[in-house]
Amino acid sequence: MGEKEFDVQGFARGIHELLVLSTLQAEKKHGYQIGIDVEAESDGLFCFRHGTLYPILHRLEGDGLVRGAWSRDGGRRKKIYALTAAGRRHLTGETGRVQEIVTRLMRLLPPPTEAPA
Questions:
Q1: Where are the alpha helices (DSSP H) in 24-78?
Q2: Which domains does the chain carry?
Q3: Cα–Cα distance list, 90 to 32, 82, 116 (Å)
Q4: d(CA 32, CA 39)
Q5: Helix (H) or strand (E) holding 116
C-alpha cells in the first residue's frame, strides 16, 4: 500500500460499497433487502440512511460491479441487483486492502484492556 496520504472519507465510502457487494455474493437482491441484510449481518453496526443506498447501487451499476434488472412482484416493479464477475474481483481485491488498513490501524492503537469493574 503505497499511498502518501490516506483518504479517510474515500475509505468510508468504499466500505459502504463493499458491504453492498458482499451481500450480493450469494444471491440477487432488491435494494431494500440489501439494506436489511447489511444491518442484520453487522448486528446493526452498519445501516443505510434513507437516500444513501440507491446512489451507491447506481454508482456500482455504472462501474459494472453490479447488474440491475427490473422485475415485477405482484404488479409492482422492483430492480433486482446481481454481483458481476468484475464486482466479485473488486470485492476480493478491496477486502485485502481493507484488511491491510485495519491491521496498520491496530498497530497504532494501544491494546484493549479490561474495563474496571
A1: 31-41, 53-62
A2: 9-107 (1.10.10.10)
A3: 23, 14, 43
A4: 11
A5: none
E strand intervals along 36-111: 66-73, 76-83
Q: What is the largest CA-CA distance in the chain?
A: 58
- CB-based contacts of 15: which residues, under 8 Å, 6+ apart? 46, 98
pLDDT digits (tens, 9 = 90+) for 4-49: 688 888 888 889 999 999 999 999 999 999 999 999 999 999 999 8
pTM for the model stands at 0.83
Find the angle CA(59)-CA(65)-CA(69) to the nearest 5 degrees.
Answer: 80
Q: Between 105 and 84, whose confidence is greater?
A: 84
